Amino acid sequence: MSTRVQLEIFEGPLDLLLHLIKKNEVSITDIPIATITEQYLATLDLMQSFNLDVAGEFLVMAATLIHIKSRELLPGGNEEPDEDEGVDPRAELVRRLLEYQRYKEAAAELEQREVLTRDVFVRATAAVEEAGPREFREVSVFELLGALKRVIDRLPKDIAHEVTLEKITVREKMTMLLDRLRNESRVIFEALFAEVKSRMEIVVTFLAMLELVKVRAIRISQDAPGGEIVIEAAAGMEEAAELVVLDEAEEKQDGA
Amino acid sequence: MERDELKSIIESLLFVADGPQTLHRIGEVLDPVDRPAIQGVLTELQAEYESQNRGVRLVEVAGGYQLRTAKASADWVKKFLGGRPARMGKATLETLAIVAYRQPITKAEVEAIRGVDVDGVITTLLERNLIRAVARKDVPGRPFLYGTTPEFLQLFNLKDLAHLPTLKEMEEISLPEIPGEAFPIDHLEES
């Protein structure tokens, strides 16, 4: 048996425990704690002897098992819950095992369904259109500004009294754009401004977009000169999104 | 429009369609044919493919209708397409199941259930577009709340989330208890 197999068998401490419980043909709700703890620790030893990096979670569980075992060795320790601890560690472990097992079974049921590209297939989609990866080119700043001008020109001309003072920050727009990209994966430049009503909001939206390009959260490209400008999520979007949130929190703190 | 003609047109639409098509979308194209008529034809087509044991089937998936190959041809189709393995690891599948049943759910909540770190798995699922961030939880750190995507429904041939296999009750799962040693389960339900 290779060391790899060991790692793949147990997804985590709960998985290993369920395996031991099944192997010993006992019930989750009635774990012979001494036996299971012994076997659990032996498995950990085995993993370590294979030079496997035993994850911290496994060790935490080992501590929990030993804790439960020691409690039950004490006279009457099994009966009355320790008031200092609040939750009975054994009851908590049983609850976690039952819950984990529940989703493990749900996962197994999902796997038995007719899985796309394993059991059933759909027609190779859009074979004509996307025969190869589409050639995208970078959009120049001038093209972006040109597109921005077209958006501004599209605004109704008769805004005589722009009195409502909307407070939309660049950062809020960044968050909105990120949320949108999570749902749609790609957004056409013009569509970004579809519901924008004021010149100020257009500029704020545009700045938010540039800011996101800078932190590599999004990518702006175009399939042909003068073609549609497409905004897409880049590989680092989620990390960048976290940063946006952090900055936002900082900003609020500074303002307070 | 004759019913046969309607059926033929709908079949053509489904053939060229990219992804599951809603009744609404088909209705828009076939305007002014009414929805019950289209629905009737779809049901009829579905039954025909089935009863004639055809190589394609019309399935209701992710809120729409889609032509898919028959399960019986899977091995040949795979061979024909070059057999890309589409296996999903246990960790990925478990995490996906937890997100599916408990959505919207944060990464930390998934980790609490699985008892292990799910950072990498969540990234994989996001990349495969099977889950997405749907909101932020109103707790310190404002973590993302994740939910499943239409692609998830397509992958597991699900009409909608209501058609997920019923999650077993905790009691049902527990093995037969040893008399006298039974653990008080109702006590556990509190948390």
- Cα(first) to Cα(last) distance of chain A is 60 Å
Instruction: Tally the structural domains of chain B.
Output: 2
Assign an overall shape of chain B: globular
Tally of contiguous helical segments of chain B: 9
Morphology call of chain A: elongated
- Give the biggest beta sheet of chain A: 4 strands, antiparallel
* Beta strand count of chain A: 4
What is the makeup of the main sheet of chain B?
2 strands, antiparallel
- What is the H level of CATH, i.e. the homologous superfamily of the largest domain in chain B? Winged helix-like DNA-binding domain superfamily/Winged helix DNA-binding domain
Radius of gyration of chain B from CA coordinates: 22 Å
The level-1 CATH class of the largest domain in chain B: Mainly Alpha
Poorly predicted spans of chain A: 1-8, 126-134
Q: Uncertain spans of chain B, ≥5 residues at pLDDT below 50?
A: 172-191
CATH architecture of the largest domain in chain A: Orthogonal Bundle
Our estimate of the beta-strand percent of chain B is: 5-15%
What is the alpha-carbon Rg of chain A in Å?
A: 29 Å
Largest interface: pair, residues per side: A-B, 53 and 62 residues
The DSSP helix count of chain A reads 10
Q: What structural class do the secondary elements of chain B suggest? A: alpha+beta
Distance between the termini of chain B: 60 Å
The CATH topology annotation of the largest domain in chain B reads as Arc Repressor Mutant, subunit A
